[in-house]
Specification:
The complex is a heterodimer of chains A (329) and B (394). Chain A is of the alpha/beta class and 329 residues long. Chain A contains twelve helices and 13 strands. In chain A, the strands form two sheets. Chain A has an eight-stranded mixed sheet, sandwiched between helices. In chain A, strands 1, 2, 4, 5 and 6 form a five-stranded antiparallel sheet that branches. Chain A starts with a strand and ends in a 14-residue tail after the last strand. In chain B, 37% of the residues lie in helices and 20% in strands. The two termini of chain B are 40 Å apart. Classes of the chains: A alpha/beta (329), B alpha/beta (394). Chains A and B meet through helix 7, helix 8, helix 9, helix 10 and helix 11 of A and helix 5, helix 6, helix 7 and helix 9 of B.
């Protein structure tokens, strides 16, 4: 399969008075054409910062270093601001978590939607309007003419997110980065939006980088999954492999502690402890203070990412290396 | 073991006045909670599920009287909380406490953990000095916080630890009833399970009664004995947990189950998704409030409001055309449910009043038999339900 996006050894950090806070640490991954890659992890694991580093939307004081962010073969990591502006909304677009804060409350939906068209692919007022109406119909919005004239506050959360998807899709981008697009929505609306995204993805042959904390959502939509913990990729696998046999102890813990609707009652399995903060990263493996299998080696030495098979990578001393882990419970 | 009835809510309404229209001159009423009734026994947990804007938090606030209900009764241990004077209410609040959703905004950032947990004791004057210190440190231990954290400020803690502080504060006066308003929604996945486990442990230890408000069915299932499903301010279905999961009847509840993402890529399938959005609560639909999104709605649903009716086994339902089927096999049971649904309007159409409830009993197929079990006496609803049932049958 062709790689659409390839990120090599991405490091993103915030300089502070006495050093650096590493939000993203040595992250490498790729997104194939027509694929939905899910990045899953808890708050503070660096999944959003990874996405913002790729699309170049971080504030200036953040430093993004990498050995290349290749989009269709060209290294966009070295692009200037104006070059990136031409990419964003055209080749790569983004859907944010909270549609109310990412839409401008002072302008109509029509204005904001047509702005995106005008900036990248202007073909006159009438044509632009037609394009806007067409994309609104595609995202299954009833009465698109009325919606063009309304303001964001007049729409429900689900409708706003449909508008965001319309804005992201209108210029037929090759890659959409969706940062928790359904987290703020109700569960019945979430299901609608997920179904819509999958459907449009096939129709427009777009790739999606889907950021979420919800393993249920991952299982519903993803082709491949990247699990992140404390700024690092800890596991990468196809969605089937990951759910059939999670290898990293963190992935296993996350799966066990996800409350399933069909789960029997009783005490729920948990991961002890809390996610370490950026300033207090433990030595060695970053997961070792919470890991049930941690050995002396884990406390002293940081594990490298190891390839296990063609499409699987794990960052753990105990996986496929020194000692095999017991089968996941 | 469930004890006697500790809380009884009868026909509770909470309506908010909303100014709308030109210059806000038009007065409208938003019915946030609309004729809600239920009762709860000591030591049990009632889970209240629903999407945003369904009135579940307003209901919780009315029970503890952070909001004064528009009408109706909230009887806690036989006393009507709605009618209490402020002084009496203050005494009573010792026994009802609340855990809030957002552990970031519900803790005073300028107080140390010790003072946050000590505040209930100081307000009610139940402990001071050495005894107070003992109590607070004991509570911290109980909720799994290290005693050495007592002099830290809330911002030094993670979300899960803050929620533990909120729980310690709620338990300080040894309440009988605790209202948990989305206590785990704002937390990370691995932390949610920790907090749910803690709530369960504390319930067993102190024989607490919980009202657990949440929008996620999976977490509600873990902790509840009974589950009430709310939509647009009304309870549309309420049943003992296992009953609700084994025999989901309301199309909205079926839709909620269907919409839950299943963490198993092998079980991906085309889902029967609910269409459309939640209607504006200011202008709720006529008849059944769910008819605009319901795949089985017909004229009866547009015209007449279904009443909350006992379907047997403590299963209450407000629907003209009940579905049948457990959550796991909702898809397979749809066919059978469809049949049952079709029988009803035929009968209901001919007969105008009372038919809405009575018709359920006449859906003369295998399903109809146990569905139609009339509301038996001996519970709160018996009186309400018995009459129309008898009418319809006659």
């Amino acid at each position: 399969m062709d790689k659409l996006l390839q990120v090599e050894h991405l490091n993103t950090y915030f300089p502070i008075h006495d050093g650096r806070l590493h939000a993203v640490c040595d992250v490498s991954f790729h997104v194939n054409k027509g694929e939905l890659l899910a990045i899953v992890g808890e708050s503070g694991c660096g999944k959003s910062v990874t996405a913002l580093s790729v699309i170049g939307l971080l504030p200036h004081r953040c430093k993004v270093e990498s050995e290349g962010i290749f989009f269709e073969g060209s290294d966009i990591g070295g692009y200037s601001h104006s070059q990136m502006r031409r990419m964003r909304g055209k080749e790569i677009s983004m859907i944010f978590q909270e549609p109310l804060t990412s839409l401008n409350p002072l302008f109509t939906i029509g204005f904001q939607l047509m702005e995106t068209i005008r900036l990248h692919d202007d073909s006159g007022r009438e044509k632009n309007r037609e394009k806007a109406l067409e994309i609104l119909r595609k995202v299954e919005i009833a009465r698109p003419e009325a919606i063009l004239r309304s303001f964001p506050n007049e729409l429900s959360g689900g409708m706003r997110q449909r508008v965001m998807i319309a804005i992201a899709l209108v210029n037929h981008p090759k890659l959409i980065i969706a940062d928790e697009p359904t987290t703020a929505l109700d569960v019945t609306i979430q299901a609608q939006i997920l179904a819509l995204m999958k459907h449009l993805m096939a129709e427009y042959r777009t790739s999606i980088m889907f950021i979420t904390h919800d393993l249920g959502v991952v299982a519903e939509v993803a082709d491949r999954v990247l699990v992140m913990y404390a700024g690092q990729v800890v596991e990468e696998a196809t969605v089937e492999e990951l759910f059939r046999e999670p290898m990293h102890p963190y992935t296993q813990g996350l799966m066990n502690s996800t409350i399933r609707i069909d789960q029997e009652e009783g005490m729920l399995p948990t991961i002890d402890g809390v996610v370490p903060t950026l300033a207090e990263m433990p030595d060695g493996c970053r997961f070792h203070p919470r890991c049930p299998h941690a050995k002396a080696l884990c406390r002293s030495e940081s594990p490298d990412v190891r390839s296990l098979g063609a499409r699987r990578r794990v960052r753990c001393h105990m996986c496929g290396g020194v000692a095999a882990l017991p089968a996941p419970g | 073991m469930p004890g006697e009835v500790i809380l009884e809510v009868k026909h509770l309404n909470k309506h908010f006045k909303v100014n709308s229209g030109f210059l806000g001159l038009q007065r409208e009423w938003l019915k946030a909670v609309n004729d809600v009734s239920f009762s709860l026994r000591a030591g049990e947990t009632l889970g209240i599920v629903g999407e945003s804007g369904c009135g579940k938090s307003t209901l919780g606030n009315c029970i503890i009287r952070l909001l004064r209900p528009t009408s109706g009764e909230v009887r806690f241990q036989g006393m009507d909380i709605c009618a209490m004077t402020d002084a009496r209410l203050r005494e009573h609040r010792k026994e009802i406490q609340m855990i809030f959703q957002d552990p970031f905004s519900s803790l005073n950032p300028r107080k140390r953990v010790f003072d946050i947990i000590a505040e209930p004791f100081r307000v009610h004057g139940t402990a001071r000095g050495k005894a107070l210190e003992e109590e607070v440190l004991g509570l911290m231990g109980e909720v799994g916080l290290d005693r050495s954290y007592a002099h830290r400020y809330p911002h030094e803690f993670s979300g899960g630890q803050r929620q533990r502080i909120g729980i310690a504060r709620a338990l300080a006066l040894r309440p009988k009833l605790v209202i948990c308003d989305e206590p785990v929604s704002a937390l990370d996945v691995s932390i949610q399970a920790q907090i749910l486990n803690l709530l369960k442990e504390l319930q067993a230890k102190h024989h607490l009664t919980y009202i657990f408000i949440a929008h996620g069915l999976p977490s509600v299932r873990q902790i509840s004995d009974h589950i009430a499903v709310m939509y647009l301010g009304e309870i549309v279905e309420m049943a003992p947990k296992n009953e609700l999961f084994a025999r989901t009847m309301h199309p909205y509840t079926v839709g909620l189950f269907e919409a839950i993402p299943v963490p198993d890529p092998g079980k991906r399938k085309e889902k029967q998704l609910l269409q459309g959005d939640i209607p504006n609560a200011l202008h709720p639909p006529t008849g059944c409030c769910f008819h605009t999104r319901c795949p089985h709605a017909d004229e009866v649903c547009v015209r007449e409001k279904p009443r909350l009716t006992d379907m047997g086994g403590g299963h209450f339902l407000a629907c003209h055309h009940p579905r049948r089927g457990s959550y796991g096999q909702a898809g397979e049971d749809q066919a059978g449910a469809g049949q049952a649904g079709e029988v009803v309007p035929g009968v209901g159409g001919g007969d105008v009043h009372g038919a809405d409830v009575g018709a359920l009993g006449t859906g003369g197929d295998a399903h109809g038999a146990d569905m139609g079990t009339p509301g038996t006496g001996g519970d709160v609803y018996g009186a309400d339900v018995g009459a129309p049932d008898a009418e319809g049958a006659g």
